[in-house]
Amino acid sequence: MASSHLRLGVNIDHVATIRNARGGRHPDPVRAALVAIEAGADGITAHLREDRRHISDDDIARLKAGIVKPLNLEMAATDEMIGIAVRTRPHAACLVPERRAERTTEGGLDVAGQHNEFAPRIAALREAGIRVSLFIAADPRQIQAAVLVKAPVIEIHTGAWCHALIDGDTSAAQVEWQRIRAGAKLAASLGLEVHAGHGLDYASAETISTLPEIIELNIGHFLVGEAVFTGLAHTIREMRAAMERGRAKLSA
Asked: Is the whole model's pTM more than 0.85, yes or no?
């Protein structure tokens, strides 16, 4: 499935990280979401972690009530999180692996190895009218497993590729890029909607935007970090411009 318009989902988790460092309500992730939408975001992503290290339950409720664009709830595939999603009814739920000790999501889900755990949880979300996405590596086995558990969307974990680019490891970056390209093509050929995210900056977002199978990028940490220097609205407009430059290469 290809689309000329590439959607940008802005993850506002780390606005909440800054708030929680001191407590109180400032800076407010809901305000950040409204700024992001005004600047060109197509949707808002927020990860409600089991330990509530950044986004809180109240944040999710206020986001659902306060924004006009789709809310994508990132979460672990646990009974608690499935229950919250079914009650909250976000537009989408992206299931991600989660460990208490990790600083950020470190890899993709093992859908192939945990079919019996994922299938009923995905079914519950779909019955609630929630678009389900699985955060996985660009691995044919995991992509095929996503089809088997009836997830309509996958999000390809781009972290290894982005880290190799930052480290200047061109060989590793090329290997990861080829995996992403092949994975996106395979997923689209199997009827899956393909998203991508993790570690993307302006340059890598422009590059990955050249893949016609990918129709949504979810980006957060880089945007919030850059916003310290140039402001959130500016960083989102710059990201949209980078994505559009990449997309324009499809018709060049």
From this structure: yes
